[in-house]
Write a structure and sequence with these properties.
Blueprint lengths: L2 E5 L2 E4 L4 E8 L8 E6 L6 E6 L5 E3 L7 E6 L4 E6 L8 E7 L2 E2 L3 E6 L1
Parallel strand pairs: 2-11
Antiparallel strand pairs: 1-3, 3-8, 4-5, 4-9, 5-6, 7-8, 9-10, 9-11
């Protein structure tokens, strides 16, 4: 079993940046993908990005060019660099791996 712990959320103004981290404990990441998802108030959880073992990535269209996902396999940590943040990016951000979810970290972008 793997435990996932997100961190790095906070309050930022429009146009600002944050870097989220997803750290694995209990065991290291397997070779499966690690995904980032978000859930805004009153909305369903949605896919944001994923990264595979070799570093291949995919993004939802609304964050392409603004968000970058990366991973440090030696540290069992995946990052989500978020730039040019918009109020519509406000949500709780979760990472997911091998069917496990982290507890989430709140990102709030003020206008």
């Amino acid at each position: 079993q793997v435990q996932l712990v997100e961190s790095g959320g906070g309050l930022v103004q429009t146009g600002g940046s944050l870097r989220l981290s997803c750290a694995a404990s209990g065991r290291t990441f397997s070779t499966n993908v690690v995904g980032w998802y978000r859930q805004a108030p009153g909305k369903e959880r949605e896919f944001v990005a994923f990264i595979n073992w070799s570093g291949g990535t995919s993004y939802t269209s609304s964050v392409k060019g603004r968000f970058t996902v990366s991973r440090d396999n030696a540290k069992s940590t995946v990052y989500l660099q978020m730039n040019s943040l918009k109020p519509e990016d406000t949500a709780v951000y979760y990472c997911r791996h091998d069917g496990y979810w982290g507890q989430g970290t709140q990102v709030t972008v003020s206008s």
